[in-house]
Amino acid sequence: MRVAPPRLQWCGIRKAFGGQTVLDNFDLEVARGRSLVVIGGSGQGKSVAMKLALGLLSPDAGAVLLDGQSLAALGGRARRSAFARLGVLFQGAALFDSLTVWENIAFRLLNADRTPRAAARARAEAALQRVCLDCDLAERYPEELSGGMQKRVGLARAIVTDPDVLFFDEPTTGLDPVTARAIDDLIVDQVRRLGCTAISITHDLASARVIGDEIAMLHGGRIVWRGPPAALDCSANPYVEEFVSGRAP
Question: What is the rounded distance in angstroms from the CA atom of residue 23 to the CA atom of residue 14?
Fold first, then answer.
């Protein structure tokens, strides 16, 4: 029986900026239907790894694979089709101030998929309900929403196309503890409902323990530890211990 490849895989990635190497022989894979959280100190390359997978950056060496196929090797329609399978909740939600809530959620549908506006709005409103927001908000603008509501709208935009892979970039940054936990619960619910693969980067360990099936520690351009959330407190890895305790190893 043929074994399916990992849903997403970084293979031997090297990425440098101005002579400074950020990722060095970086290897990481995530299976279908699994939620992986990547932790690590500032400047360790978490966001770079995500941007490589999203096609926003190109590796200096190595490859990012989706279902065993190199994303860099794809062109034209195949490339657009591959990246259409990805959804992203950006840090700070990254909503467009000049667009209404429903237009923000339906941005890809309207601009990439050329979905008719009536159909796009219907899907946007359905996504709003999935993140526990009222459809009455559809005509509002981001500035009229609280930080937590903006984050929910960002999540609705990420899930509106029912993606195979979801990325979460610091999903609870700037939120109060109660709102942050509500966002965590929504993330877990949507990942399970979609049956998709999820990759998150965060400094919030409480969030990581909730949304991750596994947690991986990035340090020095490589993954230095990986395990279940329950193993964080007994990892025997000095970099993980430093991150968890806030003390130097």
Answer: 5
Mean pLDDT of all residues in 85-106: 91
φ, ψ for residue 76, nearest 5 deg: 55, -130
Of 106, 95, 107, 100, the closest CA to residue 140 belongs to 100
Stated pTM of the model? 0.91
Q: Which of 161, 178, 97, 80 is nearest to 127 (CA)?
A: 161
Of 164, 161, 151, which is closest to residue 107 (Cα–Cα)? 161
Reduced DSSP (H G I as helix, E B as strand, rest coil) percent helix, strand, coil of the chain, to 5: 40, 25, 35
| Close Cβ partners of 80 (under 8 Å, ≥ 6 residues apart) | 112
Query: What is the residue-averaged pLDDT of the chain?
Result: 91
| Neighbouring-strand partners of residue 30 | 8
Give the other-Cβ count within 10 Å of 33's Cβ. 15
